């Protein structure tokens, strides 16, 4: 049996070379075996006896909360056999990557994920105003595609992606670094586990404050004809304020009752209770 077969598995939003993969490597190092999935929901669903750990994106400083992650965290198995065990934030540093030896003056097409294009508009306008921009499912897939010849293209291609792609796909190199519009671009990830007692096999890091993730759910509306005041009266949050005016200051008031510091409040509508 190989040493890799003895390593615990960690699921992440793939493919290899994405920022999720980079964050997972920063957190777990070579202490685990990495398994990639195509969606956040599939990453969440994979957590179990075969894949005891996972890493999912929670929030970006530019784009805000990742709704698909919050949709999974509202599921009943959270707190029963799936737990949030930690967090990790990484700086999103986009790079322009080319095949080894390619000159930037010869680049006529740039490939990447649409969000990466949106985060690098100034660089593209200043340096490649006439380049063809081609969308790909992920920045990692864009980088890997450079290794496949495109015979009908008169010129060279480049990709916007993470520098980690050059360590995964042989034959690529970084042509320009930190090409994103905003230097303060970070994404926070949650580390998931099947147990509260097992210790994730992460790399050594500085001690961090212990935090708790509190989920507050409201009862389903059984009779839509009931008045809003009656519904609010029978819901737990009425002890602080009417439901529609529940804000971060109200949440901090609730947190003070538990003698804890409230860092943030995310209000996410249930897909079954809109309107």
UniProtKB/TrEMBL annotation:
Enumerate the InterPro entries for this protein.
Preph_deHydtase
Q: Which domain of life is it from?
A: Eukaryota
Pfam families (alphabetical): PDT
* Record PROSITE patterns: PREPHENATE_DEHYDR_3
Domain Prephenate dehydratase: where? 9-194
**Keywords noted in UniProt:** Amino-acid biosynthesis, Aromatic amino acid biosynthesis, Lyase, Phenylalanine biosynthesis
- The name under which this protein is listed is Prephenate dehydratase domain-containing protein
